[in-house]
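Researcher: Next entry: Fibrillarin-like rRNA/tRNA 2'-O-methyltransferase (Methanosarcina barkeri MS).
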Amino acid sequence: MPEIKRLSNGIFEVIKDKKHLATKNLDSGKTVYGEKLITVEGVEYRTWDPRRSKLGAMVLKKFNTPLKEDSKVLYLGAASGTTVSHVSDIVSEGAVYAVEFAPRSMRDLIGLASRRKNIHPILADAGKPDSYSHLVEPVDLIFQDVAQPNQAEIAARNAVRFLKRDGYLLLSIKARSIDTVAKPKEVFKAEVKKLEQAFEPRFEILNAKDLMPYHEDHLGVLAKLK
Ligand code: SAM
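Model: Predicted structure:
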């Protein structure tokens, strides 16, 4: 019989043969990216692969993930929806505004959203929040995984438009998308400084850790508005 342990709101550890990070499946019987379905005490869970999800890795690296059942989330860099699907499980009574600019990924995301009513796919450039401001309400959390050189600026532009005063930013910074030759540690330091000082609004950093062993040369950051 598998065992279940609650890690935080909507996030679980299922123990079956080994430990799996997991969320409760909002779309019963269906998988999204080949993950396992495990039923414990009549509840179906989907395993969450931290090697395919920066947010999953952040959970295992003990970041506080400030999500509740009714949270509103702006997700920048949604790709085909691997992680978006887990956020959708967690905020089952809330909403995920999923921004992605690659049309191929957007097709998958639209398919996912047709089965999960809390996902709102938006085909747009995350660097141009004005272009989707009519589609997004004020949010409790911005999650950003765009792997772009100007990611601190993108975060600030979206935060000023959409983040509630007491909301949070969770960000994945990929060192190589900013500088291919500099040492990742130096890149991370500079990016954190940009978040703290370079743009308006400024952020207060609450936690910053590398995402090893799940993602090489990536920094996870949790921040709130200063
Ligand atoms: N977060 C996804 C997950 O865990 O399933 C993976 C995201 S992938 C590393 C980065 C994604 O960001 C790509 O799909 C890319 O097309 C998208 N992206 C990059 N720059 C963007 C931008 N300016 N606006 C919207 N999407 C962007």
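Model: Note for the record: The chain has a mean pLDDT of 95.
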